[in-house]
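Lab notebook, design round three. We kept the backbone fixed and only want residue identities now. Task for the bench partner: fill in a sequence for the structure below.
Input structure tokens:
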């Protein structure tokens, strides 16, 4: 087993679509020394997006360029353009998934997002409504049913999320965190029912296996509103799918929320 991979979480990996083995991607060793991740083929398939982004001079301009491109390619504003007497077909889009996650990370939208992380990064979820346990259990089958919901699996939703991740990485490198490899982020929890403790290093430090997608915030006070235990992590920038200023039309503004790809993390655990 490669250095830094815990036996307790080694079953949480499958094949992926990035340039790094899933077993190492989910390890503390990777978090300590992260490398750039790319989802295979995304930039090659959508060069026009990144040509538009390269012309942006501010993060706000790049957010508007991203929304305009996504609207044109995936018809995100179609419902606003059709006549009121015409039937409206539900079109899934990444903004709906973000809003759904903001209401409840265990929603069907949350399951779709966790399923995307599973397929692209090879990290299996550990919690959805309840601890998932082994594949094939009733809890796993309920998660699979939700992540495959036909309501959300149209309009190339997985590709939309691929583009969201690549845009996020572009924006972090260009405007939000140039030159940074890590960001200090916080997560408030009431207990450890959703988190497997792999190793206790000292009284305040532990290696914890996080779900494959998690909510964090850069504001410790906001984290304290979600639980009296504050988990603080040095999150690799390459594991961030979303940050608050990335797009202008989303439902996560109230919590200044970051969406962070999981695995084993060395966390500082403090009581608020």
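Proposed sequence:
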């Amino acid at each position: 087993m490669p250095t830094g991979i815990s036996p307790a979480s080694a079953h949480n990996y499958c094949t992926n679509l990035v340039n790094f083995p899933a077993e190492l991607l989910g390890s503390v060793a990777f978090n300590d020394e992260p490398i750039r991740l790319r989802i295979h083929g995304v930039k090659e398939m959508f060069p026009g997006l990144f040509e538009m982004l390269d012309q942006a001079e501010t993060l706000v301009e790049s957010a508007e360029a991203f929304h305009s491109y996504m609207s044109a390619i995936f018809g995100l504003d179609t419902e606003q353009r059709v006549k009121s007497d015409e039937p409206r077909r539900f079109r899934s889009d990444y903004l709906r998934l973000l809003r759904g996650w903001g209401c409840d990370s265990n929603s069907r939208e949350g399951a779709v997002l966790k399923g995307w992380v599973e397929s692209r990064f090879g990290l299996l979820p550990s919690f959805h409504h309840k601890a998932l346990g082994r594949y094939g259990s009733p809890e796993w089958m309920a998660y699979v049913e939700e992540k495959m919901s036909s309501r959300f699996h149209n309009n190339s939703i997985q590709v939309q999320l691929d583009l969201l991740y690549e845009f996020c990485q572009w924006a972090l490198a260009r405007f939000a965190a140039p030159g940074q490899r890590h960001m200090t982020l916080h997560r408030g929890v009431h207990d450890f029912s959703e988190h497997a403790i792999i190793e206790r290093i000292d009284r305040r430090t532990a290696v914890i296996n996080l779900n494959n997608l998690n909510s964090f915030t850069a504001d410790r006070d906001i984290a304290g509103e979600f639980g009296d235990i504050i988990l603080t992590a040095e999150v690799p920038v390459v594991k961030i799918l979303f940050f608050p200023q990335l797009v202008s039309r989303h439902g996560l503004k109230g919590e200044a929320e970051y969406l962070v790809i999981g695995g084993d993390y060395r966390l500082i655990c403090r009581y608020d």
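Keep this in mind before ordering anything: The first strand starts at residue 127 and ends at 128.
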